[in-house]
Known about the structure:
alpha/beta
Amino acid sequence: MNILDIINNIKIKTIYGTLPKNIKNISQDSRKIGEGDVFVAIKGYTVDGHDYIEKAIKQGAALIIASHYENYDLCDCAMVVVKESEIEKIASTIAKNINKGEKIHTVAVTGTNGKTSISTLIHNMLREFGESSAYLGTNGFGKNDEKPLYLGNTTPDVVTLHNKMGDVRKNKIKNFAFEASSHAMVLGRIYNVDINVAIFTNLTHEHLDFHGDMQTYAYDKSLLFSTLGNNLDEAKYGVLNMDDLYYPIMSKCLYHQEITYSIKNEKADFYAYNIKQYKENKNYKTSFSLSSPEGTFDCVINYIGDFMVSNILAAIISVWLKGYSMKEIISILPKLGALYGRMEILGDDLPIDIISDFAHTPDGYKKLLEATRNIRKNRRTLLVTGMGGGRDISKGPLIGEIISEADYVVITTDSPRDEDVELLMGSIEKGMTHKNYEKVWFRTDAVKRVIELSKPGDVVILASKGREDYEILQGGKKVWHSDPIVALEEAYKKFGKN
């Protein structure tokens, strides 16, 4: 690509060296830089890309984008110094041009909870219809039926996001659903991404260490909808949850067409009611009636919980907007399988029910316990919960109060990193309303302990981790751990198979 046109459009800049006419690739990771590439030096929270400029130059970088200059030996490399606030914008423009190609139908999902479920549901529904699809988020980056590749953040840096979209185009994939975190909006990780459908799920207590307060958090979330722009000649849509307190803010920021969904408000465009949970053979299901622009339909899904009905509505609308009829969409719902680590019920041949979920906010725990109430009726509930390092621990006491509904709780950590494990566990302990709990800091030991305590007929809930298969310990050391795998191994050792 010709880089000169992009650089010429930058009005405030200083150029060192001679600009290359063409460049090959772009990255914020110096380890991925080769001959003819662009290195973007971004100052992050823990790493400053400027510390790796000399390494990138030695590896053959043709161009460096940075926010300040030192006396580098540039050799054949050029450097463009711009305002720090502009780096992501410029990087996104270069990355988009490198990765340009055929149009992709792109769906972005934002909200405190439900992002992974909805983006995965959209992907799975489109695959049922025989369409090519990719998705990106907490579980990683996956194409068609491939196992997702873990990337690290819910929404990666802007260069990686555009590079992944380039990968989607190279594989001739037509659809892409991704999770857009509030951090992503604030830090410019979705700059220059052309979005067709933007979905809002909900907004609850989370990340206040980053946003400061709920109003700022809501504003930061709303940036996704203003990102769609105000060119109404383009077919873009906002899909908004009317049941959430912050729905009006998202609606106000949306210039394009609005489609609403609800499980409480019959005035919504898509309204689910008569929600009933039941068990068929060994499988838990939910049925509901759905009022839509194409009429009323009876629906069955292989998930439990009102919040999963809400999630499925958002996914249904996204697929409906592509032109599929409601009759077609409703027909595939019973074919959709389990969502890894999201209300996933494990071990149907065990005398206990094991439920794995990613709940990590007060609202997430509340919905998890509400969703499993029928399953847990007249049964003892054992619950494992953990607090992560480098996270907002002000939510800990609220979580402790909510999970006190369980008969016994094992409090542990969730990738404690360099945090004091006693402080992390203590934040949850402060909210506990009964004494039927214990603290086991290493998560593998905590999961083993809850299975040791379990008896036939019990319900064991593994919360806050889902299907993540690692723990990050002191010094950034990464070790393997999987709640479901550890729990199942211990349960089969203890109970055998029915």
